[in-house]
Amino acid sequence: MGKIRQNIFCPAGLGEKSVTTRGTKFEIRPNGHHSFVLLDSVSRIQNPVMVNPNPFWRYAPHAGGSALVSRYPQVNSVSILSRIPGGQKTILQRLNVRMISTMTRLTKQNREEFNQWLVGLTEGDGSFIIDRQRQNNGASPKWNITFQLSQKDTNAQLLYYIKNMLKYGQVSKSKDGNWSFRIRDKEIINKVIFPIFDKYPLLTVKYSDYILFKKAYYVLTSNLNNALCPQLRSAESAQLLLSNSPTLHGDNPNGLACGDGKGLNKQANCDLACRIEINRELARQMEEIYKFYRKGPDINYISPIWANLYRLKNAEAEANFNNLSRSDITFVTKFWLIGFWEAEGSFYITNKDADAKRYTHGLGLTLKYDRQILEAIRLIMNADAKVKVNPRHIKCSGAGKADFYAWDSTSKSVCKYAMTYFEGKFIGRASLRFAIWCRSMDKDLKTLVKAQKMLRHLRLK
């Protein structure tokens, strides 16, 4: 294979200036945007070496071919595994290679797990966009719908992974430096997106956006713009749409009425009058949908997937949440939670006692709506810690404003359970944070302090 030179990046002030492996010396250059942590040994964290991350080389826009990956327990040092076809890039053994190979295997054997993961990720980082573009000439607005997932620059490869799995969509970088995966084609949305989100419904308030998004799709693809007069066709949807039209069979503001003229002229006028009225009705329906879309859900809105838990409808009753059981939340699947945690969850190390320097591991997340989601996660994690209104956001409470709900736990047993529950399952940058968090468990003070700094640094990127 010969000597291969590969740049390794390190944030200023962290790590060594170079590292040598298999006789090849790698230079370290400061780069705060692209970083990755490699541990020198399985047993402890030493000076962190940050390397340019590319957890999915095969999906990178500048690379092709497949990456040879190894199992997580084998990671002992920096080592070169293989060269991507073309000889332009090298593959480095990485801290998180286990979950890459694991997820690839799972999704090939059972795509349903990927679909559940995607729904969970969308709950946090996804959007169902209804876009109205006003026309300069005073014509009716142009409407577009888009399914979108957004990630920071450091997690862009996650989007290429999703694109590869779905086989559709575009990944692009926006002006603010973030990356987005989008599907705009209505036929593809209907073919790829709707089947996933219909089978595994959204569990948060985002369900409201999805329903409006789907209604907009059916209005925009109803084909009524080309429909003929009801007397000359049998399209049931158009019949219903036009059944209550006040102008179709009477005076028309445009000077046309269905039935004007004779022979072919009569039919042409009738068709034109129908199309004018249809366009007007379509525009009215889209404006109505858009109004609710812009307004957003009510502060007490709960996804109907929770409707069988009738006691949750009264969100003011604390006992309603305390009485939840695991049998109530079977629809909160493991892979949904993995995707949701990838978007919203946090792994951290905190100092509970500044004087005694008592560092401990913790995990948690904060949501503006959907307290029931946090209650379900608390049950899944077998945690005693209760969901609470985050004190930092109590000022946001009040009429017309939603509370911010938070759940976190520093329980050793909960953290150990989470290590087993999430092991080898994260796909994107969360895998790095999770690996640092796990590998620093039960370590000495120096290691904990370093790991805490690394986690805080990654949280900002």
Short overview:
With about 450 residues, this protein is of the alpha+beta class.
Could you characterize the architecture of this molecule?
- It is a single chain.
- β8 and β9 (142-151) form a beta hairpin.
- This protein is an alpha+beta fold and 461 residues long.
- Among the domains are: 224-294, no CATH class; 310-459, Homing endonucleases (Endonuclease I-creI), CATH 3.10.28.10.
- It is built from 13 helices and 15 strands.
- The model is unreliable at 1-108 and 225-257 (pLDDT under 50).
- The longest helix has 33 residues, at 263-295.
- The protein is 37% helix and 16% strand.
- The protein is elongated, with a radius of gyration of 27 Å.
- The strands form five sheets. It has a four-stranded antiparallel β-sheet.
Gap from first CA to last CA = 34 Å
Strand order of the largest sheet: 8-9-11-10
Query: Could you name the CATH homologous superfamily of one domain?
Result: Homing endonucleases
Element string (H = helix, E = strand) = EEEEEEEHHEEHEEHHHHHHEEHEEHHH
Number of DSSP helical runs: 13
Q: Which percent range describes the beta-strand content?
A: 15-25%
Main beta sheet: 4 strands, antiparallel
**Helical proportion, percent range:** 25-40%
Which structural category do the helix and sheet elements fall into?
alpha+beta
CATH class annotation of one domain:
Alpha Beta
Point out poorly predicted stretches.
1-108, 225-257
Which CATH architecture of one domain? Roll
Q: How many β-strands, per DSSP? A: 15
CATH topology (level 3) name of one domain: Endonuclease I-creI
What is the alpha-carbon Rg in Å? 27 Å
Taken from the alpha-carbon principal axes, the silhouette is: elongated
Determine the mean pLDDT.
71
Protein name: LAGLIDADG endonuclease
GO molecular function: endonuclease activity
InterPro entries: Homing_endonucl (IPR027434), LAGLIDADG_dom (IPR004860), LAGLIDADG_Endonuclease (IPR051289)
GO cellular component, one term: mitochondrion
